[in-house]
Structure formats: structure tokens, C-alpha cells
């Protein structure tokens, strides 16, 4: 039934495997997610038109800048990331030059700068990029591959919620490799399809929904992340997953939702032990 519809935007494994794609048992409005036979990478069957229309939501000058408690959470999270980076690089924050790719209007850059890190950003969408520049942040508007930043000019490149939007992440990875100093880090945060959340929720997992998360077309797991890293010249320094979710509020009666939420919280730590959390964070070394 899907063969007569629009052709999918992604027709092969984004990681670069040559073994082909097969239908998974996760069926979305666009059709079943396709799974790479080799690495298990999942890809959407959405059309190119739908993909680009869904990406329009990011051309917003308000971007991802948080306020209130969300701003406090961002600062706590940034402190955790910076401390990990300091430990892995053996440098103080003030000695670290960081590039945040897909930086929106610069919330993470601003938080990192408040901790002493020398941070800059790259953002393809014009409205948030110009908002960041107007606020005094060092942000380049465009795609990293087109900006031609100097070689080996950064200690760290961060990709937070970026690679799930990419048809060809390898070209971005290779450019990240070029702008990083030897021994530098590529830090990634994305979803994990080999998680208890994904296995339980399947098509109910909102992370797969291009209507709820614009541009989500490519879904990683620890194996596919490792293969992409290796093919792009990186080694996996550290890979961690965390968080579990079985139901969203309103999906089931509250009397059932509360104990299921409690169970998911109990499983947060084991999900880290076994690599089954739905949030995947990777530190890759050049």
C-alpha cells in the first residue's frame, strides 16, 4: 500500500551500511519504519516534501531559549556536560574551545560561556541564528559543511538532538572531525531505539513522530552509533543511555499510570547499566 505513495526521502542506511533496509514492526502514518539489516538503524518513510515542511518549525527567533525552571535545568545539565568534557580532555573550562552545531538561538552556548567555556555555534535556520548574533553570541548561520571553519580549531563539537534530522550524517561527522583538534571530542545526544522505551511503546513513542518532532527521520542505537563513529574516523570514548518511559500521561487511566511511572523511574538506573535507556549520549574521540 505504501509503494504507490510518495517515495521516501531516505532510501538507504544513513550510517553507510550496504546490506539494505527491511520493514520493521513499527508502523507510522508514513508507513513502517525501515531497519538496516546490518546495524539496526531505523529510518522514516516520509517524503522529502514532508521532511522539509516539518523542519519549518525550527525557523523561530525564540528558538530553544528556556526560562524559569527550564533555564535552571539547562544550567545544571550544562555543568554536567562541561565537567565530563574537562575530565576527558584534562583541561579547565576556560581552556576549552567549543562549537555547538545546531545551536538554535544559543541557549547552550550562553550557559557554557557562563561556566567559562569559550563557546561558539552554527545554526542553519536564519531566524534563531540572527537572534543569537543579535544577543552578542558568536554564531555562524548555515550548515557546518558550508561555513569552512579553520581546521583543528576546536577542542569539542556538540551535536544535541541533531543527527536524527540528517539523511547523511557521515558528511557532518567528517567535517566535525576536520575542525576538531587531535584528541578532541564530538559529543552527541540523540534517542536510542534499542531502549526499553522504544521496544515497549513502538509507534506510540512520540520520538518517532515527525508531526510532533519535526525532521526526525533517522533513529540510532549503540551499534549504529559505533559504526558511524568508526567510519568517520572517531573512536567511542564513552557511551551512556538513561531514562525509561512506558506511557504518557493521559494514555491510560491515572490509577494505572502512576504505578507505571513509578516502575519506569525504578528502571532508570538499570537502563543505564544495560544500555537500554531511551536517551543516548556519546563521547567520540578524534
Word description of this protein:
This protein is of the alpha/beta class. It has a single domain, classed as Rossmann fold. It is 33% helix and 23% strand. The protein contains 10 helices and 11 strands. It has helices spanning 48-54, 69-89, 107-114, 126-134, 144-147, 169-179, 196-201, 222-231, 254-266, 268-273; strands at residues 21-28, 31-36, 42-43, 97-101, 118-123, 139-141, 154-160, 180-191, 218-219, 235-242, 279-285. Strands 6-5-4-7-8-11-10 form a 7-stranded mixed β-sheet, with helices on both faces. It has a 4-stranded antiparallel β-sheet with strand order 1-2-3-9, with no helix packed on it. α2 (69-89) crosses α3. The mean pLDDT is 95.
Q: How do the strands and helices of this protein lay out in sequence?
A:
Layout: E1 21-28, E2 31-36, E3 42-43, H1 48-54, H2 69-89, E4 97-101, H3 107-114, E5 118-123, H4 126-134, E6 139-141, H5 144-147, E7 154-160, H6 169-179, E8 180-191, H7 196-201, E9 218-219, H8 222-231, E10 235-242, H9 254-266, H10 268-273, E11 279-285
Parallel strand pairs: 4-5, 4-7, 5-6, 7-8
Antiparallel strand pairs: 1-2, 2-3, 3-9, 8-11, 10-11
Helix pairs in contact: 2-3
Amino acid at each position: 500500500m505504501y509503494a504507490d505513495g510518495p517515495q521516501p526521502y531516505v532510501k538507504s542506511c544513513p550510517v553507510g551500511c550496504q546490506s539494505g533496509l527491511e520493514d520493521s514492526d513499527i508502523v507510522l502514518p508514513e508507513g513502517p519504519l525501515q531497519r538496516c539489516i546490518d546495524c539496526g538503524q531505523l529510518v522514516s518513510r516520509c517524503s522529502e516534501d514532508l521532511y522539509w515542511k516539518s523542519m519549518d518549525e525550527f525557523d523561530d527567533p525564540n528558538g530553544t531559549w528556556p526560562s524559569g525552571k527550564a533555564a535552571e535545568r539547562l544550567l545544571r545539565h550544562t555543568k554536567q556536560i562541561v565537567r565530563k568534557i574537562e575530565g576527558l580532555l584534562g583541561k579547565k573550562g576556560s581552556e576549552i574551545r567549543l562549537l555547538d552545531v545546531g545551536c538554535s538561538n544559543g541557549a547552550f552556548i550562553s550557559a557554557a560561556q557562563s561556566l567559562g567555556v569559550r563557546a561558539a555555534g552554527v545554526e542553519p535556520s536564519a531566524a534563531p541564528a540572527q537572534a543569537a548574533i543579535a544577543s552578542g553570541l558568536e554564531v555562524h548561520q548555515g550548515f557546518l559543511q558550508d561555513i569552512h571553519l579553520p581546521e583543528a580549531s576546536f577542542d569539542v563539537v556538540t551535536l544535541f538532538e541533531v543527527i536524527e534530522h540528517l539523511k547523511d550524517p557521515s558528511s557532518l561527522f567528517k567535517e566535525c572531525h576536520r575542525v576538531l583538534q587531535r584528541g578532541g571530542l564530538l559529543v552527541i545526544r540523540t534517542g536510542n531505539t534499542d531502549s526499553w522505551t522504544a521496544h515497549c511503546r513502538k509507534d506510540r513513542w512520540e520520538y518517532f513522530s515527525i508531526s510532533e518532532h519535526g525532521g526526525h527521520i533517522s533513529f540510532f542505537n549503540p551499534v549504529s552509533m559505533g559504526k558511524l563513529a568508526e567510519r568517520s574516523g572517531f573512536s567511542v570514548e564513552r557511551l551512556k543511555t538513561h531514562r525509561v518511559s512506558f506511557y504518557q500521561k493521559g494514555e491510560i487511566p491515572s490509577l494505572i499510570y502512576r504505578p507505571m511511572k513509578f516502575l519506569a523511574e525504578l528502571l532508570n538506573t538499570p537502563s543505564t547499566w544495560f544500555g537500554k535507556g531511551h536517551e543516548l549520549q556519546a563521547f567520540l574521540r578524534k
